[in-house]
Structures are given as C-alpha cells and as structure tokens.
Amino acid sequence: MADLKITISINDTDQTILKNRLADINNWCQNAVTGQIDFAWNLMREEWTTKLMDDDSFTDPIPSTKNEFVTLVTSRSDYKTQAERDAEPKNKPE
Fold first, then answer.
1. Residue 44: which residues within 8 A CB-CB, separation 6 or more?
2. Are 33 and 18 in contact (CB under 8 A)?
3. Residue 76's closest CA among 60, 90, 92?
4. Where are the domains of the chain?
5. Would the pLDDT of 92 be above 90?
6. Distance CA 22, CA 72 (A)
7. What span, in angstroms and rounded, lies between the C-alpha atoms of 25 and 17?
C-alpha cells in the first residue's frame, strides 16, 4: 500500500474562524491525524492481542513490532476494516 496524501480545502471564512483558536492550522491538522493514528493503534493492539491470546488455533508468538503486528492481524481471515464492518447487516431485535 502506498503512502496516502490527503489534501483539504478550507475557505477564507473558516480559516479566519480556525485562526481565532489555532496558531497554525496545518500543524493542528497534522497533530490531529497523528493523534487519531495513535488512538486507533492502541485500540487495535488491545483488541487483537486479546483475540490472538483467546484463539486456541493461534500458536505463534505475537509480534512485538507495530508493522509485524499489523501485517499479522490484517492477513487473518477474521480481520475486517471498519468499512467492511459497517457494511455488514446489523442484528436487529425482533
């Protein structure tokens, strides 16, 4: 997977609004994305460490590096992205 480059456009009015609270809009956006990545990583690591430990068929060591851990998890047949989970039919009470 290639690096993802994201571009956003903020009109003049919204820039003025943001500058009322932020010294550097670009820096804030970069930090917001970095924070979300860290948050998502912590959730993924916690969720999947538990799943792997509870899976009797999984007998390999759990990787200690982020890259190896993510590769292991995302290659499993039971892994689904958020978009895939959102697309699943919801269990509705009858």
1. 70, 73
2. no
3. 60
4. 29-80
5. no
6. 39
7. 10
Q: How many CB atoms lie within 10 A of CB 27?
A: 10
Radius of gyration of the chain (CA): 19
pLDDT tens-digit profile of 16-73? 999 999 999 999 999 999 999 999 999 999 999 999 999 999 999 999 999 999 999 9
3-state secondary structure 37-67: HHHHHHHHHHHHHHHHHHCCCCCCCCCCCHH
Closest CA to 69 of 94, 49, 93, 83: 49
